[in-house]
Structures are given as structure tokens and as C-alpha cells.
């Protein structure tokens, strides 16, 4: 299996997974990069996976389905181009001879789902998490609550540490600038930032990231850590008995306002 990030728009990645003859794509916001990659690698499109309803993740679905007949898998609780097979937490999406486990991750949108592919003999686990978890950050809360997003990120953070995290946007460097403001003393973060800066300088994606790395550097997976808690309390008014979701909400707000 080969994993390929197809750049789209300004900073999206459409993830393609293929076996040399058949491919799946995740969140094709635009059809053309997918058509180009299918032609270039001489692949048939076997399935389209969608994580949430936003146009930059679904804009190419109808054209790809019409041209290839590839079945569409998507979130049961969201409106995406018909027809599609709807999935909720615990369902298995079968494609390319692989079984993708569906995880409900509300927060960015109300019905957002993620697809987790457990490890196989020669392949690390893969996570396609759309706009829920980014490297060094997380999606904005357009439809869900902070408590929902915190629970969604907790569910993703509990996956195996060697999971390759296939995020849908190249937001890493901007996220890390904020992460370093939150945890200036985090040495793992300093090292990771240097690595990502050098990748971007060479025009390379910073993704996929590894879940074990995200646990060490991503403030949104670390809102219970003493260093992050202290920084949030210095930045925002929080009562002494603020709940975990309140701390997470203040951290997310800080990032929204961060320039
Ligand atoms: Zn989105
Ligand atoms: Fe997006």
C-alpha cells in the first residue's frame, strides 16, 4: 500500500491510498488532482471516503463518483453529495480489501467522523481525521462544543502511538508557532518545529505526523498537562475549579485570537 498526499487549493491534502492498481481517496474537495493522480499512477478509483460536509472536503465527490462509479462512504449525520453509505461510531467501511474503523469525532462539525486503519504486517496504523486533529493543532469549533472536541481528541489520542496521522490541511507551522507560545520550554516541540521548518523549506509536506509525536507537542492533546494549564491560566480568566472543557475552551479561544 502506498500513501500519497495530493495537494489541493491553498493548503488542503486529499489523501490517496493505493495498491498499485486500485486507490481510495479521502476528502476530495477538488476532483482534478485526483483525476491527475489516477492517470499518472494508472489507478482505478475504488472508493471515496468523506470525513465531514465542508466544501473543501466534498467539492470533488460528485464528479469523481460520476466518472468512476466509485462508492462514497461518509458521515451519517451530515449532508454530503448523494448517494453515499452512511457511517457512525463503530461501523466498518470496507474498501480496497481493507477495513476502516469509523470513529465519531464531533467538534469541528457536528457529525464529523474519522477513519482508522489498524496496523498490518508491513504498514503502520493510519488515521484519516479530516479537520479534527491537525499536527500541532485542532480544527475550529464551528458546530460542536469544547467538551465534544476534547472528547473527540481524547478518542484519537488513545490510538496506537505509531499511528500515522493524515490531517486534511498543511497548517503545521502556524500551529507550532502557537504551540511554542503555550509551551516555550517544551524541547520536543522545539525539535519538531525545526524538522517541520526544514521540510517546508524543501517544499515537502509535514504530514503524515505520528500520534506519539502529537501527544508530546500538540497543546490540544495536552490541555491537562501542568505546563499547558499554567499557560492557559496566565492568559485567560479561569475559576479555580474550572472544568477540563473550560480549560480546553480557553486554549482554543487563545488560538483563535493568536496573531
Ligand atoms: Zn472543515
Ligand atoms: Fe477543511
Spans where pLDDT lies below 50 across 5 or more residues: none
- Largest sheet strand order: 1-2-3-4-5-6
CATH superfamily: Ribonuclease Z/Hydroxyacylglutathione hydrolase-like
Give the radius of gyration: 18 Å
Would you report the number of β strands?
14
Structural class, judged by helices and strands? Answer: alpha/beta
Number of domains: 1
Mean pLDDT: 98
SSE ordering? EEEHEHHEEEEEEEEHEHHEHHH
Helix content: 25-40%
Explain this structure to me?
The chain is an alpha/beta fold and 259 residues long. It has a single domain (2-257), classed as Metallo-beta-lactamase, Chain A, CATH 3.60.15.10. Helices cover 35% and strands 24% of the residues. The protein contains nine helices and 14 strands. Strands 1-2-3-4-5-6 form a six-stranded mixed sheet, with helices on one face. A six-stranded mixed sheet has the order 7-8-9-10-13-14. It has a two-stranded antiparallel ribbon with strand order 11-12. Helix 5 runs antiparallel to helix 6 (187-201) and helix 8 (226-235) crosses helix 9 (244-257). The radius of gyration is 18 Å and the shape is globular. Bound molecules: zinc ion (ZN) and fe (iii) ion. Zinc ion is lined by residues 52, 54, 108, 131.
What characteristics describe this protein?
259 residues, alpha/beta, Metallo-beta-lactamase, Chain A, 14 strands, globular, binds fe (iii) ion
What's the topology here?
Blueprint: E1 2-8, E2 12-18, E3 22-26, H1 32-41, E4 44-49, H2 55-58, H3 61-68, E5 72-75, E6 85-87, E7 92-95, E8 98-104, E9 113-117, E10 126-130, E11 133-134, E12 137-138, H4 146-157, E13 164-167, H5 172-182, H6 187-201, E14 209-210, H7 211-217, H8 226-235, H9 244-257
Parallel strand pairs: 3-4, 4-5, 5-6, 10-13
Antiparallel strand pairs: 1-2, 2-3, 7-8, 8-9, 9-10, 11-12, 13-14
Helix pairs in contact: 5-6, 8-9
This protein binds zinc ion (ZN) and fe (iii) ion (FE).
Amino acid at each position: 500500500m502506498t500513501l500519497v498526499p495530493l495537494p489541493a487549493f491553498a493548503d488542503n491534502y486529499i489523501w490517496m491510498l493505493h495498491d498499485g492498481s486500485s486507490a481510495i481517496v479521502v476528502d476530495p474537495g477538488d476532483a482534478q488532482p485526483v483525476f491527475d493522480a489516477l492517470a499518472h499512477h494508472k489507478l482505478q478509483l475504488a472508493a471515496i471516503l468523506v470525513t465531514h460536509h465542508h466544501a473543501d472536503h466534498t467539492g470533488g465527490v460528485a464528479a469523481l463518483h460520476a466518472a468512476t462509479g466509485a462508492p462514497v462512504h461518509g458521515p451519517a449525520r451530515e449532508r454530503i453529495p448523494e448517494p453515499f453509505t452512511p457511517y457512525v461510531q463503530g461501523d466498518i467501511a470496507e474498501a480496497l480489501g481493507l477495513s476502516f474503523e469509523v470513529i465519531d469525532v464531533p467538534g469541528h462539525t457536528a457529525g464529523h467522523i474519522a477513519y482508522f486503519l489498524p496496523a498490518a504486517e508491513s504498514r503502520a496504523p493510519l488515521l484519516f481525521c479530516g479537520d479534527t486533529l491537525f499536527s500541532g493543532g485542532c480544527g475550529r469549533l464551528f458546530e460542536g462544543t469544547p467538551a465534544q472536541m476534547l472528547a473527540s481528541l481524547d478518542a484519537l489520542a488513545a490510538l496506537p502511538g505509531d499511528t500515522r496521522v493524515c490531517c486534511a490541511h498543511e497548517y503545521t507551522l502556524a500551529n507550532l508557532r502557537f504551540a511554542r507560545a503555550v509551551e516555550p520550554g517544551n524541547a520536543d516541540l522545539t525539535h519538531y518545529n525545526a524538522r517541520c521548518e526544514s521540510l517546508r523549506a524543501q517544499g515537502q509536506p509535514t504530514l503524515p505526523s505520528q500520534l506519539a509525536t502529537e501527544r508530546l507537542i500538540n497543546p490540544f492533546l495536552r490541555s491537562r498537562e501542568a505546563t499547558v494549564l499554567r499557560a492557559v491560566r496566565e492568559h485567560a480568566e479561569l475559576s479555580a475549579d474550572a472544568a477540563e472543557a473550560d480549560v480546553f475552551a480557553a486554549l482554543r479561544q487563545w488560538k483563535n485570537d493568536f496573531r
